[in-house]
Write a structure and sequence with these properties.
The structure holds 2 protein chains of 2 kinds. By secondary structure, chain A is mainly α. Helix content of chain A is 62%, strand content 7%. In chain A, helix 1 packs across helix 6 and helix 2 crosses helix 3. By secondary structure, chain B is mostly beta strands. Chain B has 2 domains: 105 residues, no CATH class; 93 residues, no CATH class. The radius of gyration of chain B is 19 Å and the shape is globular. The chains are: A mainly alpha, B mainly beta. Chains A and B meet through strand 1, helix 2, helix 3, strand 3 and helix 6 of A and helix 1, strand 8, strand 16 and strand 17 of B.
């Protein structure tokens, strides 16, 4: 070897044997901050971050939105590469800001799960930014969306498809009466519907669920509509685009905060979580007193809810509510869930969402 | 960690990781060899600012290209133990913001506008050292005011890149300011290895583009002046 870099010597490296998963990544971040890394450290770190980001990209972009000629893996690599931009001294300024000494020190003594959560948070936030920068290149698969809308509409009562002057129109009449349609232009009707969709957080849903939820909202509001099928496609695309760029699907935990603030927020979050658990436990005691639930079932509800809250914190609900409960009640059948448990669990979820919303508003 | 991806995709990630963390195989490089001449007793005379007393510096090695157009001098600061490289060429775009790599080393160094690069504390054995230099294949001057996506054409480009252009977009509402650079290169087969953003005389940001795209987070109150491409 003609050249040897003294700073990258083995002496400065921490023994990694026995460390697993995210803690190992944290040590690699530490090497980078100290400018004491080998190319292998960098390579392992980048691959790990890409793999960590891919499931989130798959979930967020959904099956109907494409980003010009970028595949999901390209999006991951673009997001990650912006972290690894070097300056003239060969250092990584962006990475060093996100994983400065104060933060790494905190997580070195914290649990592995805490660091994983922080990492996922940072990555999801950067992913949102990437989607935002590439927003002009979003290409919705309109033909596929249109086909799925037509298929799903036939399965939802109160929706009707009509042909008028070569135009396919979609009607929704809660009581079969189109006179309940609000007055105003077609543009206003579209804007009102978009407002309803965004307000009800319908982003991130696949077409059948989107339409079911939209129907439920219209039914609740006793609202009738008549819009062209192409407008319904636009409505779906706009709602999904909005979700992709702003992340309405999850509780907007500290989306614009600095890394240090994020760590402080994380500490607050722990406090709120325990407070909420106590509240929910008291609520469920009422069900026990009325013999609607056993003590062990109560524990299962609380554990499942806890998992869901952690997923919200990590970027959003990852599976159907039933699956959260099924983890602690493996024999639970979907039929039983629908009959007996769903109402209770959904009520708990709604309460928890409101609880965090109030806390965040008070913080702001 | 999450489940592993498909083998092809995984190798694609690995390739990209390698381009981020390993020494790049630049296409247009010039190899420099050890130049067997007597080293100058006055290093400040050649590629040296001369502000510091020359006794502080010891010349370690001089390298030159086969056609003698490139000259690279490596000096050692005897106090700090750090090495500095000085690249010389008669054309400014050949020594300014040029990548220097050494055989057997995975690190790459970028010269500043005076052709100077800090090599840091390295154990430099005199023989045999071979270096490669890679000047930019295209240079773009960035307008001082960027308010929307804007297409820019090169102020200098080699034969391959003369029809290329950049689409630049500055996201002012983001903190920190973010500059998106998308390279468009009709009929160019060679792969783009690096995009360097020159912020001022000292600060530069080096990105590895993906499909010709790079996102730069800019330091506070700094507007970039130039963008260079390397193949």
């Amino acid at each position: 070897m003609a050249l040897n870099y003294g700073s990258a010597g083995k002496s400065g490296q921490i023994e990694e044997e026995g460390l697993a998963g995210e803690k190992k990544l944290l040590i690699k971040f530490l090497y980078l901050i100290n400018n004491n890394y080998h190319e292998k450290d960098l390579e392992e770190l980048i691959i790990a971050l890409v793999e960590l980001l891919l499931p989130t990209i798959k979930r967020e972009a959904g099956p109907y939105l494409r980003l010009a000629n970028y595949q999901q893996r390209d999006i991951a690599l673009i997001t990650i590469s912006s972290l690894f931009i070097k300056n003239s001294d060969g250092r990584f300024p962006v990475l060093e800001k996100l994983f400065n000494w104060k933060i790494t020190e905190k997580f070195l003594i914290a649990g592995e799960r805490d660091f994983k959560r922080y990492l996922k948070k940072i990555l999801s936030r950067r992913l949102k930014q990437t989607f935002y920068y590439l927003s002009s290149e979003i290409r919705p698969e309109r033909a596929r969306i249109r086909k799925e809308i037509l298929y799903s509409l036939k399965k939802i009562p109160d929706f009707r498809i009509n042909k008028k002057n070569h135009l396919t129109l979609v009607n929704f009449c809660p009581d079969g009466d189109l006179s309940q349609r609000p007055e105003g232009s077609a543009e206003n009707e579209y804007s009102n519907l978009l407002y309803l969709c965004l307000n009800a957080c319908l982003g991130g849903l696949q077409v059948p669920r989107f339409l079911k939820r939209l129907a439920a909202i219209l039914r609740e509001k006793q609202m009738a509509i008549e819009i062209p099928l192409s407008s319904l496609v636009d409505l779906y695309v706009e709602t999904q685009k909005n979700y992709l760029l702003t992340g309405l699907g999850s509780i907007p935990f500290a989306s614009q905060q600095e890394p240090e603030q994020l760590v402080n927020f994380y500490e607050n979050f722990h406090k709120w979580q325990s407070e909420l658990q106590e509240k929910n436990a008291l609520l469920l005691n009422k069900y026990i007193r009325k013999n609607k639930m056993t003590a062990s079932e109560k524990e299962n509800y609380l554990k499942a809810l806890n998992d869901l809250i952690l997923d919200w914190y990590d970027g959003g609900q990852e599976k159907p509510l039933l699956d959260y409960l099924k983890k602690y009640q493996p024999d639970l059948q979907s039929e039983d869930y629908r009959k007996e448990k769903r109402k209770i669990f959904e009520y708990l979820v709604k309460n928890s969402k409101n609880f965090f919303k109030n806390k965040l508003q008070a913080e702001a | 960690m999450s489940k592993a991806g498909k083998p092809k995709e995984k190798s694609e990630s690995k390739d990209f990781c390698c381009s981020l963390c390993q020494k790049t195989e630049f296409k247009e490089t010039v190899t420099l060899f050890h130049w067997y001449t007597q080293t100058s007793p006055f290093p400040y005379l050649l590629g040296f600012t001369g502000r510091t007393p020359f006794e502080l510096y010891a010349e370690k090695i001089t390298l030159a290209s086969a056609d003698r157009k490139f000259l690279l001098r490596i000096l050692k600061d005897t106090l700090s133990g750090e090495h500095q490289a000085y690249l010389l060429h008669e054309e400014a775009h050949k020594y300014q913001n040029t990548f220097i790599t050494f055989e057997h080393s995975w690190k790459e160094f970028l010269t500043d506008c005076q052709g100077q690069a800090r090599l840091g504390r390295i154990d430099l054995e005199l023989y045999p050292v071979k270096a490669s230099v890679c000047p930019p294949c295209a240079i773009f001057q960035i307008p001082s005011f960027l308010n929307c996506a804007r297409r820019i054409f090169p102020s200098y480009a080699n034969e391959n890149w003369k029809n290329s252009s950049l689409v630049m977009e500055l996201f002012r509402e983001q903190t920190p300011l973010t500059l998106k650079i998308q390279v468009e290169k009709p009929e160019v087969e060679s792969e783009l290895k690096r995009i360097v953003l020159i912020l001022n005389n000292r600060e530069r940001l080096i990105a590895v583009p993906r499909k010709g795209l790079a996102l730069f987070e800019l330091p506070e109150k700094v507007i970039p002046v130039q963008a260079n491409l390397y193949e």
